[in-house]
Amino acid sequence: MTACPEERFSGRTGQAYYADRADRPLTMRAAEESDLPELVRVDREVFPEEPYPYFVLRQFFDLHADRLLVLDDGDTLHGYVLFVTTSDHYTSWVMSLAVSPDQRGRGLGRRLMLEVLRRLRAEGVREVRLTVEPTNAAAIMLYRSLGFSSEDQVRKDYFGEGEDRLVMTLAL
Ligand SMILES: CC(C)(COP(=O)(O)OP(=O)(O)OC[C@H]1O[C@@H](n2cnc3c(N)ncnc32)[C@H](O)[C@@H]1OP(=O)(O)O)[C@@H](O)C(=O)NCCC(=O)NCCS
C-alpha cells in the first residue's frame, strides 16, 4: 500500500493537495452544487448495491454542504466524506466515506477522516460515531487506527432486516 509522498500534501484550512495517478493535484474542498452529478456517480461506483438516491444526496447537500468534503482533480471526483453533527453539538456522525476503487490504498480515506476530525475538534464536538459493516475490514482498520473503538456487540438489523452494523465511537 503506497501512500502519497508527504511533499505532495500541503495542508491549508479547507484545502489539501495530492497527486492522483495521472499526477494531477487532488483538492479536498467542500462540495458545490455543480458537484452533485459527479457525487452521485462516485457514490454509485463505491456503493453499487446501496447507493444514495439522487434526491437524498441533493438534500444532504442542501442541508450540510459544508459537511460534505470532496476530492477533486479539477475534472472528476475521486471520493467524499459526509458528516453531520447533532443539534446539541455533542456528537457528530460520519454518515458516508468513499474513495474510488482506483484511488484506494494511497492515504486518501485517512486524509478525509483526519480533516473531519480536525474540523470537529475545532468546533468543540465531543464524540464522533459511525456505523460500518462488520465484514468491512479495510474501513474498520482505518477507523481503529484513528482511535475509534467499537461496541462489544454487532447491532443486528441496525439498518433493517439483515443489515447488521458495528457502531464505532471516538471521543474527541
Ligand atoms: C474504506 C476506504 C474509505 C479506505 O480508503 P483508502 O483511501 O483506501 O484508505 P487509506 O489508503 O487512507 O488507508 C487507511 C487505512 O485503512 C486501512 N486499510 C485501507 N485499505 C485496506 C485494506 N485493503 N485492507 C486492510 N486495511 C486497509 C489501513 O489501516 C490503512 O492504513 P495503512 O495505510 O497505514 O495500512 C475505502 O476502502 C472505500 O471507499 N471503501 C468502500 C466504501 C467503504 O467501505 N466506506 C466506509 C463505509 S463505513
TrEMBL record:
Annotated N-acetyltransferase domain residues: 26-172
Pfam families named in the record: Acetyltransf_1
Signal peptide bounds: none
Protein name: Acetyltransferase
GO MF term set: acyltransferase activity, transferring groups other than amino-acyl groups
Organism: Streptomyces dysideae
Keywords: Acyltransferase, Transferase
Coiled coil regions, renumbered to chain: none
Superkingdom field: Bacteria
InterPro entries, per the entry: AcTrfase_GNAT_prd (IPR017255), Acyl_CoA_acyltransferase (IPR016181), GNAT_dom (IPR000182), YpeA/RimI_acetyltransf (IPR050680)
SUPFAM superfamilies given in the database record: Acyl-CoA N-acyltransferases (Nat) (SSF55729)
